[in-house]
Amino acid sequence: MAGQIEMQTPTQPSMAKRIRVGIVGCGEVTQIMHWPSLYQLSGLFDVTALCEVSQSVLEVLGEYWNIKQLWTDHKQLVASNEVDAVLVATPNAFHAEVTLDAIAAGKHVLVEKPMCVTRREAEQIVAAQKSRQVVVQVGYMRRYAPAFLEGCDAVKQLKEIKFARVRDFLGSNSLIIEPTSRVVRDEQIPESVKRAAKIREDSLVDEALGGKSTPDIRRAYTLMLGLSSHDLSAMRELLGMPSRVLFAAQRGNGHYVAAAFDYGAFVCQFETGIDKIPRFDAHLEVYGIDRVVRIQYDTPYVRNSPIRLVVTEDNGRGGVNKIDSHTAWGDPFVAEWKSFYQNISSHKAPKTDPVDFVHDLELFAEMARLMH
User: CATH for 143-330+360-371?
Assistant: First the structure.
């Protein structure tokens, strides 16, 4: 996994002033999470430009957020002299294109997960980042949460690991978003635009799967790119990269996935699915001989929801101690943006950089292969 390595100083505006951010993609993740996080960190960041395929959404948000540079073409945004860094929050199929164009323009990039869909795209981004020496950070905000970082330290203190589990079951995002947030949407986007985006995504998934897949496996791969990328990326930081995938299976038309990862001395069981219950049941759990460490996540769509660290252990007197800690107030998206700022100002590679993301694509590809 990529660590904190020194980078050459890029040709960028002085970090003595706020980093000017251009946002490409103004959907729900931008409106509910990223914009409030950047507003909270207004001493570090200044949003100076927006890009969105919907002209109506663009105009409404531009007025709400008092932003003058509004584009429907991302190439114009990344070329702007008023932008130092780009948030890529488009549909998945466009992540690589926008990221590559931003890098070529000499901009730093925070790209929402997944960084891309295919290994080819990932290799292009890795090469481009090395060439331009800008910061490219993948949006795995769960890995920046204080409870997760403390959980990683707690796992390191285990004498040995006997078993591990990664679980993520939740209801459709809309079940939580609709009662809690207002999202500006455009119900009049032409069908031709939607169709072109779907064709693009299908083509990339075909490429990723080698052209050999079923509709169920395609949906499972899309689930891995989206929800599961958070889980398996966090698993890798917590436990390291597994030596192999023991098994992987999908059911429920690709909406439920199970897998097991071989760590030599122990196995990590993975399970995920999406249903219609408005709740968020996600955790990583590591079992030692006399202690269990659990990192419990809540929905990201309600900002500042506590992420908890739970440690259960033998008390040495024939009983059990259980510490259920909410380690700090704050939102993981804010923590992620703070880290992005520090990486830019210190010229360091993020722990969630493009090379790190390639490991997730490797796991997804092997899981899809075993599903056949």
Answer: 3.30.360.10
